[in-house]
Amino acid sequence: MEITPGIRDMLNETKETLSGYKCRHFMAQVVETMLDGSPMRAEKELGWNRVTLGKALAELQGGFCFIDHYHQRGRKRSEDHLPRLLDDIREVAERHSQTDPTFRTTGQYTRLTAVALRQQLIDEKGYTDEELPTEQTIRTKLNDLGYSLKRVKKAVH
Q: Which of 40, 55, 64, 78 is most buried, judged by most C-beta within 10 A?
């Protein structure tokens, strides 16, 4: 069967509306019915990826579905690499924390900067500089734990 520009555009538009298994299933059906089962021809005429088409055809012929693990992609959180990190941050920050002096909020204020906290984790808890997250990440973890840094106002005498 000849693929005209109109058919090519219609097939590509339909493919773009689908995702995951449904998209691969559609692609495999098109290759099987219109392109004689040739992923190379589909790549040349439709611009579809041969590797994806091989996976799609294997699914169609085998009657199974590859499971896409999108949720497992990306960088893992610091706590996944260092399970004691949050407890250690909390322990060190607790020693340098105070409640709001006006008692307007229930939050804890810490007089410790993220840089100093990171250094104390290295000195006291035995972490290495390479394994600890960055200063910005430590600051974010402190805020997530309910500690916030406040600028100290100087009293004028």
A: 78
Place of tokens 């520009």: 5
DSSP structure class, residue 111: S
The verdict on pTM exceeding 0.90 is no
Whether 152 shows a pLDDT value over 60: the answer reads no
**What pLDDT is recorded for position 153?**
57
CA distances from 65 to 7, 26, 53, 54, 145 (A): 27, 13, 13, 13, 41
Burial pattern 49-82, b for ≥16 Cβ within 10 A else e, equals eeebbebbbebbeeeeeeeeeeeeeeeeebeeeb
Say how far apart CA 24 and CA 55 lie, in whole Å. Answer: 8
Q: Strand 108-110 relative to strand 97-99: parallel, antiparallel, unpaired?
A: antiparallel
The answer to whether 97 touches 107, Cβ cutoff 8 Å, is no
Please state, in angstroms and rounded to a whole number, the distance separating the CA atoms of residues 74 and 129: 23
Q: Which is it for the CA torsion 76, 77, 79, 81, positive or negative? A: positive
For tokens 């307007």, what's the residue? 104
Instruction: Calculate mean pLDDT across residues 93-114.
Output: 75
